[in-house]
Every structure is written in C-alpha cells, then in structure tokens.
C-alpha cells in the first residue's frame, strides 16, 4: 500500500490524460488486470519460496548463478531508482507545501517573508537526501517497514477527494458529465496502449511484498492476500478518482486531454481545486507528501532486502547480510541502499530517464516471474507451491506477454531507459566476474547439495555412476551415492561388469556369472535395506575399466563413485588410476572397511595443502554429507616448524577463507606446526570418522594416488574419500 497508492497516480495521471484523454480510466483498468495476473504469479512463487529477495530469489532457485545475479542486480537498481524518484518527489512537494503555508499566512516568520532556502534549486534535493538518510537510520533499528498511520492518512485524503467528486457530480447536469467523457479515445487505440505503457508503474509495489517474504508470518496464506488486497484497494481508489477528475475536474472550456497536456504534473491539484476549491488543492498537496514519503519508505525497505538476499548468496559483499541483534534488521544493506539513493539524487542528470529505466526493468522482471512460475509448476515434483494460480497456464502466459509488450514499448519510447539499464548491467558484470563469481558459484553448489530439489527446479536430473565389483563395498557405496544424488531428484546407476572374453560361454565357464550373481545379490540387499531406489546395469567386457569409462561417457554421468579396498605403497599404476585418465566426470573414490556405515561418521577431517582445485566438488560433498545429519568438519593445514610468523598468519587467513568457502562458518580450523605432515594427519585422523583428500587429475599418465596419499592411507585405518574434480 505504501508503495502503490498515491505517488504513481499523482505523477502519472496527467501523462495518461495527455496521451489518451478520458480513456486513461480504461488504461489504468487494463493495467490493473495485468497487475493482478502478475500478482497471482508472484504469489505462487512467493508461497513456494517464502524468502526475502523477490524476483531475485525466484531466479536463484530456478536459473543459473549468473542469470540470478543479473536479475537481482537490476531489480535492486530498479528499487533504488524508484526510491530516488519518490525521494525527489517528496522533496519537491514538501518544498511546495511549506511555500504555500508561508504564502497563505499559516506560517509566519519574524520579517514576514519565507526563508530564502525555499526558493533555492537545491532545496528539494537536500530534503530528499536528509529524509532518505533519516529513514535509513530508522530502519536499522527495526525490522518492519512501518508507516501504517501514513497509509491510513493518505487513503482518507483520497477518499475525501473521491467522495467530494461524486458529490459535485450529483450537482451538475448528466449531459455535462457525459460530454466530458467525449471523445473517450482521444488518440485512438494506439494512444490507449501508450498510456498503459507510461502508467503501469503506478501499480508497481505489490512485488515488494515478495521482496520481504522472509519476514512474513504464514507466507503461503498472507503473501497472496497482501498482494491482491493491495491491488484491489489501489484500483478502488484510482478508478473512481480518475472518473471524477474527468467529469467534474474542469469547467468545460478545455477537455481533460488539453488541460493535462498544459501541466501534466499538476493535473490532480488543478482539477481538485475546481470541484473542492482551495481545500481540494491543499488535500492534494497533503496526499502527495504522504504518498511520496510512504513510497520512499517501502522501496528502501524492499531494496535493502534484495541486497540482503544477494549478500547471503555471496553475490554482494558479506557485510550487507549482517543483522542487528535486537531488531533483526539488515543494517548493512539498509545503510548501503540509503547511501546509493542519496548518491543517485545528486548524480542522475535525467531523473525522468532513470524512472523510465526503472519501469522497464520492473516490466522485464515481471515477465521473467511469469516464466519462472511456469517452470516451477512443471518442475515442482517433490513439493508443489502451497498457493497455485487458477487458470494455469493462461494466467502466466497472458500476463508475461502483456508485461513484455509494455516493456518493449517503454524501451522504444524512451531509448535512454535502455542505455541506463545496459550501463548498470555492465557495471554489475564487471563486479561479479572480478569479485563475486567464485564465491557465488560455490555457495550455489552448496545450496543445491543441501536442497537437492534445486537441481530439478533447474531442469537437471544428475546421474552418478557406481561401478561395483566387490560385494563387501556395496552397502557403503550405495549409501554414499544416494547422499550425493537422492533418488527423488537424480539417478543412481549401479554398474556391474561381467569380466569375460567376447567368446564367453556361460555353460562352459560359470564363474563370471557366479561372481556377478553374488555382487547383484548384495546390491539388491543393500538397496532394499537402505531404501535407495537405484537402477542397475550389467555389461560383459574383457576390460572392465574401459567398459566403465564407456558407460560413463555414454550416459553423460555427472559423477563416478568408485570403491577401493586398499591403497598400497606400490608406485606402479593401478587399473583404477588408468581409468581416471579416461573419465571426464567428477570422481569420488571410497576406501572403507566392510562393516562401515556412512551414518556413523560424525567427524570429518579435511587436510588441505593450500593449492585448492577441488572447491566445487568438496563443497558439494560436504553439503551432501551434512544434509540429513549434522557433522563436525575440521580443516587441517600442516606447515613446517620454521615457518615465519607472518607466513603463519597468512596461512591461517587462507585456511579460514578455504573453510568458509567450502563449509561455511560452522566448522573447525587448525594450523599445526610439524615437520612430519604424514604423522600429524594420521594422528588427527585417528579421532575422525572420515578423511577427505583431494587428488589432482592432469592426464591419463598422471597417477591419482601420489606418495602423500599412499602414505596417509597406509598410516590410517579410518574410512577415506579421495575426490578428483573433472578437468
């Protein structure tokens, strides 16, 4: 309500009247239909993802990291620019109101004249900046948008304008009223469409409810209600007000189209003065000040929550997601958003073009929201949205096409809007690629692993291939595979290879079939006991490693999970290491005893050497392991005892950064000074339930298990996972 009602109608009613005449009423009504369709799509998405961020959050769930950043970046900018426009409008109307109070004698000064600053060109901007900073400081101490009394006051003012208009309508002949409505389409149907493009932004604001969805109680019920009620109330104010402005707002000497063309910004005040006298003029000024203030407040509030959501996903600096303990308000995001608003008040040379850019961006993101609604409805197999739009898919299709058409019109009508948007996107692209890309992508990998449904929402069905030759490994391998890719969102393909020649005759040589039978029996038993729905594939080949590589390539596997009974100090190539050179997938190698259970490994030790290279796979593995049960993760770095203190400090910072990137803040880090890293890691591994090591895979002739890995494996008996990311 704070963002929708008031500011848009006061600023854009004159433009709509000047463009299309009395049919501006129809233009607002048709925009209302499009806005309701859009609100329904937003409501379905917000009920599915009740988190702060609005369209950015929806995009982050369904699209790639880069696409989600682009959407969030431009939506944040659009909300900031909308706040700038309302801040300047508040400053202008406040200056005008104070000037009128001095001119009417309601306020007097010692010398009987108005202060000199009222006539200065900088006074509206100064008031805008001061008010924005004050609101920003106020919002850091509370988590709600506030401003309820302002909304009530301005609705009362508009109600008086409407009731007064209808009273005046009863006092004049019907013929005069109908004459004011002719010609209804002052510029034809083309003018009507133009007026819709100019004025649609007057109904923007319902989307801000989704932007603060993470702070709404019972979001599945309250968010759809709030969106629809806000729009209905706004239309119940806008349409009657426009009607009385047309019918009783002029003396009949000039049609409303010509009257609005002469002074579009003051048309509401001019017409209200005609049928309510000076009181009507004062009411419009009061309504304007209240409307601009509440719209500024609402857009600042929503824009800060978009920045908060982006910061939590590592798409913006982390300090923007810091919350005040007492109120839960994201004070960093609020202050940065407010500061950017103040900066734009000073820097924007053409506020009108910036406003058009804001309108264009909102329309494009609304069209994206309709498209995302279709994707989420199709892909939400596990948990459908609690609130679902009736009339699907007609509602999102018609709403999306309408928003896209208005956006195209806006881009053609105001070319500067497209230029400003492209410039902002260029700035965001440089910042993302240079500062945020790696952290954002790792955070995205962690989110997908922690919430596997995101893979399906993005249209993906990951496949992990699990070759099993040793029946003793079947249970542990299947459990780990299901952890990496749950059956509800992906596929676990268990592969057994019957090692036999091309001329094999089972009736003559039954041993290969017997070995395969024992492996399959254990696979079926383990999958049944664990409740894992896995697929099985059995092939016959004299070269099992080559066959595994062929199957992995044929099925385009995301990961290959391999089992290994033991790792020896023998430096000769093993068949497994030869296989790794042929695989283009991520590889996870598990060495575990026969009776090992994945659930029993509560402690995880991750030795790191500082080189990295496995961040994405390690993040996915750790997040997957911690999805169903909390595990204690410890990152360990061993450095020589003669390491300088300055280097030790640098290494600790590197370890902190590595652990935060791969496991978040809930983990332990330790830097140990020792000249025997093998013994140190083996000692720490004795207390851990699972050790995770990374291995470089640089080509078919490069060994996976170097001497370091072999030594650790020989000195420890605990389960070990060796990961190797695809090159």
From TrEMBL:
Keywords: Membrane, Transmembrane, Transmembrane helix. Residues 603-723 form the UspA domain. It is a multi-pass membrane protein. It is found in: Membrane. The chain crosses the membrane at residues 28-46, 67-88, 122-141, 148-169, 189-214, 226-248, 281-308, 329-348, 354-373, 394-413, 419-437. It comes from the Bacteria. It holds the Pfam family AA_permease. Residues 1-418 form the Amino acid permease/ SLC12A domain. This is Amino acid permease. It comes from Rhodopirellula halodulae.
